[in-house]
Amino acid sequence: MKRTVFLVLVVIHFQACDNHRIYEKNYDLADKTWLSDSVLRFDFELVTIEQPTNLFYNIRNSLSYPFQNLYVKYTLTDTLGQVFREELVNHNLFDVKTGKPFGSGIGDVFDHRIKLLSNYRFENPGKYKIYLQHYMRPDTLKEVISVGVRLERVPVED
């Protein structure tokens, strides 16, 4: 019991110290399954645009994930709902030769933060949306525990 309380406090501490994060949200997927027609939507608002940002998507998968990689299509829309960025990206979740999982993990669960945009400057403040959809061959993608998006300020170097 004491160990659980300690771990919760450590996690809260590190999340509270994350002063670069502008937005982060993760969806837990039912039955560790991501369906190809399940497009995940994330809404965020930018009040200021002076500082460049990094945009990531987060994946949490189990060791039983049946592939070495993951194809994801992301679509970014502006404050008027117009698509201004769309791309299909591929990321290896496991080493091709050894099968060793990438990312950080405990037990058989691994987390990945995959950069989509680096040092990106949005043109206007306002409300934005990003959509994520998997583009793997099977319609039902098993052993994906959660999917999310993170937007953060690029740290200013002194």
Q: Could you write a compact summary of the structure shown?
A:
The chain is mainly beta and 158 residues long.
Task: Outline the fold blueprint.
Blueprint (H helix, E strand, L loop, with lengths): L1 H15 L4 E8 L4 E3 L4 E7 L6 E10 L6 E9 L5 E10 L11 E3 L2 E12 L5 E9 L5 E3 L1 E10 L5
Antiparallel strand pairs: 1-11, 2-10, 3-9, 4-8, 4-11, 5-6, 5-9, 7-8
What does this entry look like structurally?
This protein has 158 residues and is mostly beta strands. Helices cover 9% and strands 53% of the residues. The chain has one helix and eleven strands. It has one helix at 2-16; strands at residues 21-28, 33-35, 40-46, 53-62, 69-77, 83-92, 104-106, 109-120, 126-134, 140-142, 144-153. It has a five-stranded antiparallel sheet, with no helix packed on it. Strands 3-9-5-6 form a four-stranded antiparallel sheet, with no helix packed on it. The chain has a two-stranded antiparallel sheet with strand order 2-10. A hairpin with a 5-residue loop joins strand 5 (69-77) and strand 6. The radius of gyration is 17 Å and the shape is globular. Residues 5-11 have low confidence and may be disordered.
Q: Major sheet: order of its strands? A: 1-11-4-8-7
Net shape: globular
Mean of the pLDDT scores?
Answer: 89
Q: Could you list the spans in which at least 5 consecutive residues all have pLDDT below 50?
A: 5-11
Count of individual beta strands: 11
Rg (C-alpha, Å): 17 Å
What order do the helices and strands follow? Answer: HEEEEEEEEEEE
Tell me the number of helical segments per DSSP (H or I, 4 or more residues long): 1
Percent in strands: over 45%
Secondary structure: helix percent: under 10%
What is the terminal separation in angstroms?
43 Å
Please outline the major beta sheet: 5 strands, antiparallel
The chain-level structural class is mainly beta
